[in-house]
Design goal:
Elements (H helix, E strand, L loop, with lengths): L1 H9 L13 H12 L6 H9 L2 H4 L6 H12 L1 H9 L8 H13 L3 H21 L1 H20 L7 H15 L2 E2 L2 E2 L7
Antiparallel strand pairs: 1-2
Length: 187
């Protein structure tokens, strides 16, 4: 798949925060999650592979140049989808995340599904490796989910949305991958 190879090449020098694994493994995980959604299609999988490109790669190019590159390589729908997943908001973190939640809440269903898969991929790592930041992160995710629910035209995957909501609930209780933060199985 062209998008997979493009993403692996673009992120080849990057490592995942906390685990230091090659960053493309996160992209593969998001694409894999998206591919399991009943409404999945090639478009969602391509956007999943490319979702962090504009934000994280080719720092010598402007956002517009990176968008144009994606447009030329993958077409308008993929380029627009990646752009909708790119944080371009300004201000302090709270202001940026609120604006981003509003942007995602208005995005097409296939973009929202990629975002939900991205959240699933990121949450375990953040909660396991950065408990202090995870409190902020979980609040931001819950706000995003609430904004997505307010959009009466949203057609995101209810199954994927439910998985994210359950993961957030488990993270709040301190249970990730069937274990508590202390490493014990929950009672």
């Amino acid at each position: 798949m062209k998008a997979m190879q493009f993403a692996i090449d673009a992120h080849k020098e990057q490592k995942r925060k906390y685990t230091f694994e090659p960053y493309w493994k996160h992209l593969a995980e998001v694409a894999g999650i998206v591919s399991q959604v009943s409404t999945s299609n090639w478009l969602m999988v391509e956007i999943a592979w490319l979702h962090d490109y504009i934000e994280d790669c080719d720092k010598h190019l402007t956002t517009e140049q990176k968008y144009d590159l994606l447009f030329d390589e993958f077409g308008v729908t993929v380029a627009d989808g990646v752009m909708l997943l790119t944080d371009t908001e300004v201000g302090n973190r709270a202001t940026r995340k609120m604006a981003a939640a509003n942007r995602i809440a208005r995005a097409p269903w296939y973009v929202q599904n990629v975002k939900l898969a991205d959240i699933l991929s990121n949450t375990i790592s953040i909660v396991q490796h950065d408990p202090k930041f995870s409190v902020i992160y979980l609040n931001e995710v819950e706000y995003l989910l609430s904004k997505m629910c307010e959009n009466t035209h949203a057609k995101f995957s209810p199954d994927l949305f439910s998985l994210v909501a359950l993961q957030i609930k488990a993270a709040r209780k301190g249970v990730i991958n069937g274990k508590t933060k202390e490493g014990n199985k929950p009672v």
